[in-house]
Amino acid sequence: xxxxxxxxxxxxxxxxxxxxxxxxxxxxxxxxxxxxxxxxxxxxxxxxxxxxxxxxxxxxxxxxxxxxxxxxxxxxxxxxxxxxxxxxxxxxxxxxxxxxxxxxxxxxxxxxxxxxxxxxxxxxxxxxxxxxxxxxxxxxxxxxxxxxxxxxxxxxxxxxxxxxxxxxxxxxxxxxxxxxxxxxxxxxxxxxxxxxxxxxxxxxxxxxxxxxxxxxxxxxxxxxxxxxxxxxxxxxxxxxxxxxxxxxxxxxxxxxxxxxxxxxxxxxxxxxxxxxxxxxxxxxxxxxxxxxxxxxxxxxxxxxxxxxxxxxxxxxxxxxxxxxxxxxxxxxxxxxxxxxxxxxxxxxxxxxxxxxxxxxxxxxxxxxxxxxxxxx
Length: 376
Prior knowledge:
Elements: E1 2-7, H1 11-20, E2 25-31, E3 44-47, H2 53-61, E4 65-68, H3 75-81, H4 91-98, H5 100-109, E5 117-120, H6 123-133, E6 137-141, E7 151-154, H7 160-167, E8 172-176, E9 182-190, E10 196-198, E11 202-207, E12 210-216, H8 222-238, E13 243-252, E14 255-262, H9 272-275, H10 280-288, E15 301-308, H11 314-317, E16 324-327, E17 337-345, H12 348-361, H13 368-375
Parallel strand pairs: 1-2, 1-4, 2-3
Antiparallel strand pairs: 5-8, 6-7, 6-8, 9-10, 9-11, 9-13, 11-12, 12-15, 13-14, 15-17, 16-17
Helix pairs in contact: 1-10, 3-4, 12-13
């Protein structure tokens, strides 16, 4: 029996623990919250902050390997922990992904396309970035920030002062606007012996900066799959990576541009639970526990929709044929990810018919046109 310690006890840790049960992999978590999402499916929880070395060491003492469920865990204490127990993915990958400037420099240094960017520390630099990179322009804090938080769009020089005030001295990065045709992601998994596997490209739709739904395999994605896998392989191998890595991409004129990476299981891969032969969660555990990797092939066409804020009528949702409901056991709160819904079908036309019904019942009719375009 393998025992995995997870730093962070959110919904990703919850789904990792659930994926471990059939494999006799038991999961512990370290989380400061008294009742994190993963609490009900764990062997046990260690209460403590993510920089609490005593709590981290207590977690590691009874585990074969330590992993993490989000990238805002401080890398240095985990690097210290790696001297006594394997920490996977490597803390180097975590440290790079935590800082958007380091991340962009690292990816560009491998010759992988990214949007032009500049470091920003004050208003004059921001105005210079507008001149050099052009408008519109995206400004993001270098650290923290997710689901659209810590990000601003600049359409004119007049916006610079307000964005500078909002940053309040926080180090940031400016990125040239990419007029992309669609947002995609690829999820790869690498074992310690270098074996790698890749899931089909996923097409993603965001609503107010938050992932609204994912469709997989991405329509017309076959021509881009090899390009995406080549990007993923460069990153996985250069980082001597172990585990699942998610890469967010923009498609522009048949070319893929990397937006950012996530050194963990990812929201855009939730469809793999029902839609792939081996889910991203199971494959992450297989990789970090030195078990053979599972098949990443899809079972058909899949749709995943995030549930935000509050739950719609479950009785009506569960009446939709083939619908799977995942409740993260989190308190309802405006804008919060509290669960997801998924569907799989033999073809995209069937998926559209069921998906449209699911969106209607979930109160997400405004996404129907976006879903229809994504499935076209």
